[in-house]
Amino acid sequence: MAILDAHTHVFPPEVICRRDEISARDSGFSLLYRDPRARMADGKDLAVYMDREGVDMSVAFCFPFRDAGLVRLVNDYVLECARLDARILPFAVVDTHDEKAAVSEAERCLRKGARGVGEMAYYEGGFGADERRRLEGLACFLEQTGLPLLLHLNEQVGHDYPGKTPVDFAEVVRFVETHPSLRMILAHMGGGICFYEFMPEIEKAFPLVYYDLAAAPFLYSNALYAFAAKFLTKKVLFGSDFPLLTLARYRAALEGLDDEAKKLILYENGRRLFGT
Question: What's the half-sphere exposure (Cβ side, CA atoms, 13 Å) at 232?
């Protein structure tokens, strides 16, 4: 069975070596990566993971830095990884604090082969009205291109961890409703917003919204997989959150699904979304 990992992170080796220096300048990056035990990987590490665990394709991206030079550096690195390894589907990161620059960088990267934008994340202040407004220009641009946006969301209850922030689900819904033709992936099962698709008005507004399983073993019981297979069969993508986790951590739970659900979640939904 073919496997597409829709959520992996890679960093240029020089960024990994400069972890401490960059942490001192970028507070969002610092929250996740200043601890030397926090896993970071480059493109070669991603290839090793894919070979070892039988992953056929991976969506790869870096980190949404606030520094324009770093953003350009990491995007060029991910694009080069994809040029060298056709199994990698490159996504571009941008800094939405500068809306014009974000659109310009997205356009530059898409011209060079990027397959989408993300993971866009708000590890310090959370996601609310201001964050939604700063995404408007990028969202309009992506609607025109037909390429997807990957947005980081986290759950609002449960245990704490670095980077967990408040998310205003009403603003997320408003963003989706404002951009009905934007294909979107809400990471980490949308922080639980997926469960609101039982509401008819949310289901109606979310036909182009997908969810990925990234970090699910840290967040939910294995009952999540049966829920995804039954109620969101054509909307859930396997994503490992490599190098935080790998496919191996998900295998036992995924094996409990029927073959059709596994095929959709592990590959077919991603193939349809990314046009592979």
Answer: 28
Rounded Cα gap, residues 221 and 28, in angstroms: 28
Are the beta carbons of 245 and 7 closer than 8 angstroms? no
- Residue 117 pairs in a beta bridge with 92, 149
The token duo for 154 is 């986290």
Phi then psi dihedrals of residue 78, to 5 deg: -65, -40
| In CATH, 4-274 is 1.20.58.220 | no
Best CA proximity match to 184, nearest among 231, 127, 138: 138
| Digit-coded pLDDT (tens) for 183-195 | 999 999 999 999 9
Question: In sequence order, which residues have a C-beta less than 8 Å from that of residue 111 and are 6 or more positions away?
Answer: none
Q: Please count the other Cβ atoms lying within 10 Å of the Cβ belonging to residue 187.
A: 26
How far apart CA 163 and CA 258 sit, in angstroms, is: 34
In tens, the pLDDT along 73-105 reads 999 999 999 999 999 999 999 999 899 999 999
